[in-house]
Amino acid sequence: xxxxxxxxxxxxxxxxxxxxxxxxxxxxxxxxxxxxxxxxxxxxxxxxxxxxxxxxxxxxxxxxxxxxxxxxxxxxxxxxxxxxxxxxxxxxxxxxxxxxxxxxxxxxxxxxxxxxxxxxxxxxxxxxxxxxxxxxxxxxxxxxxxxxxxxxxxxxxxxxxxxxxxxxxxxxxxxxxxx
Length: 179
Prior knowledge:
There is one protein chain. The chain is an alpha+beta fold. The protein folds into 2 domains: 2-35, no CATH class; 50-178, 2-Layer Sandwich (GTP Cyclohydrolase I, domain 2), CATH 3.30.1130.10. The protein has 8 helices and 7 strands, in the order αααββββαβαβαβαα. Strands 5-2-3-6-7 form a 5-stranded mixed β-sheet, with helices on both faces. A two-stranded antiparallel ribbon has the order 1-4. Helix 1 (2-11) crosses helix 2 and helix 4 (97-106) crosses helix 5. The chain starts with a helix and ends with a helix.
């Protein structure tokens, strides 16, 4: 990867051997390996026995989870907040695991729409809850720095499964809680 970054710098008209850029290829490689570490993460190992039997049947919401990912179309960051809810059906998950699930999928080259669905489907698979709702709100540097150059656009995506899809009251309660 380092040699590819050196060549990219040359193609931009830069000298990869000048003082400020000498270690850039190593830094870029290290950063990209971290930013795409979701490819090697094992969701099952991450959850690591953090699913518990519990007689809880009310909505559980984790809001304002910081989210950082990379657009697969331009390799530029997008960032924002994830709001995740589920209604248990006999099982709950450790509170720290929801943000970690968000991170696993965010640390891959992504489109926001797929990321939203991956989070929802993982919780549905692991917990078999009565419903799952996921809303992502993000700003995309590919829209801010290039292309349409709109700095204040926030893209919102959602994935609603189970009761969040079929029951308008459940969906409405979630929407009110995350605002």
